[in-house]
């Protein structure tokens, strides 16, 4: 599990996170939700050791992220950031194979290449494997980065808004594939989501942040209520059950 204790974080004089104490369970999909500027990406980056812990403690499966070598953490966690600055003249296949770096250090074995090839199939990228990143759409690029993280074969996947630029079919397909990874491969996933219906449909656990503080957390069926969401987003939100599933309405 991920354990967060008394976590604070500031950017200059601006306090981003305030005294976060939280447990994220292993073996499920945890959605981080909340309004813009709530601190979701900052929290994910701190968990994933993409930024230094200033105050407090974060441990992933009992490994302190502040003191554990990055090479060791890379075999436990794979990260897809909101922005990934990688050379555009890299092919999709090369990018996905790069996910094996923590294991192969650049010397790919047939086993490494087989894992990368499987990832291309899983994320519907095989036909794009020889295309350069600047020759494909933003949505296809996004799926390629998720495939690279999958290729890393870690227990934890940390994904910051991976549905950006994805159309309805591919967003649904990606969420379904992530749920399968949890169910069939025992992966643990932490994902920043803006679409509340994806959180309601696919998440096993939800953490809501507001102004750098935990507003609520728990099982979606219990915490994604009209009252809680309306307060969180400062907007009128309704919830309804349709065919046994919770649907969140916020359009009018």
Structure report:
The structure is a single chain. The chain has 252 residues and is an alpha/beta fold. It has a single domain (2-224), classed as 3-Layer(aba) Sandwich (Rossmann fold). It has helices at 40-47, 70-73, 92-97, 101-104, 110-122, 138-151, 168-185, 196-202, 220-223, 226-233; strands spanning 2-11, 14-24, 29-33, 55-60, 63-64, 77-80, 156-160, 188-192, 205-210, 213-218, 238-242, 245-249. The strands form 3 sheets. It has a 6-stranded mixed sheet, sandwiched between helices. A hairpin with a 2-residue loop joins β4 and β5. α5 packs across α6. The radius of gyration is 18 Å and the shape is globular.
- Low-pLDDT sequence parts: none
Number of structural units classed as domains: 1
CATH class: Alpha Beta
| SSE topology string | EEEHEEHEHHHHEHEHEEHHEE
Q: Can you count the helices?
A: 10
Membrane topology: Peripheral membrane protein
InterPro entries: AAA+_ATPase (IPR003593), ABC_transporter-like_ATP-bd (IPR003439), ABC_transporter-like_CS (IPR017871), P-loop_NTPase (IPR027417), Siderophore_ABC-ATPase (IPR051535)
Subcellular location: Cell membrane
Pfam families: ABC_tran (PF00005)
């Amino acid at each position: 599990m991920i354990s967060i204790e008394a976590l604070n974080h500031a950017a200059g004089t601006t306090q981003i996170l305030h005294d976060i104490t939280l447990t994220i369970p292993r073996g499920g999909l945890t959605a981080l939700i909340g309004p813009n500027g709530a601190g979701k990406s900052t929290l994910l980056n701190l968990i994933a050791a993409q930024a230094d812990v200033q105050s407090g403690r974060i441990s992933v499966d009992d490994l302190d992220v502040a003191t554990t070598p990055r090479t060791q953490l890379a075999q436990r966690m794979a990260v897809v950031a909101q922005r990934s600055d990688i050379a555009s003249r890299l092919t999709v296949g090369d990018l996905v194979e790069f996910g094996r770096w923590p294991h192969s250090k650049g010397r790919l074995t047939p086993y490494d290449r087989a894992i990368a090839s499987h990832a291309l199939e899983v994320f519907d990228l095989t036909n794009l494997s020889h295309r350069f990143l600047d020759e494909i759409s933003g949505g296809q690029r996004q799926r390629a980065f998720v495939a690279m993280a999958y290729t890393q074969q870690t227990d934890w996947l940390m994904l910051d808004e991976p549905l950006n630029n994805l159309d309805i079919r591919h967003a649904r397909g990606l969420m379904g594939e992530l749920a399968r990874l949890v169910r069939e491969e025992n992966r643990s996933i932490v994902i920043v989501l803006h679409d509340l219906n994806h959180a309601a449909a696919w998440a096993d656990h939800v953490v809501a942040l507001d102004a750098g503080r935990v507003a609520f957390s728990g099982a979606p069926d219990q915490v994604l209520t009209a009252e809680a969401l309306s307060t969180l987003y400062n907007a009128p939100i309704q919830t309804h059950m349709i065919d046994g599933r919770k649907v969140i309405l916020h359009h009018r």
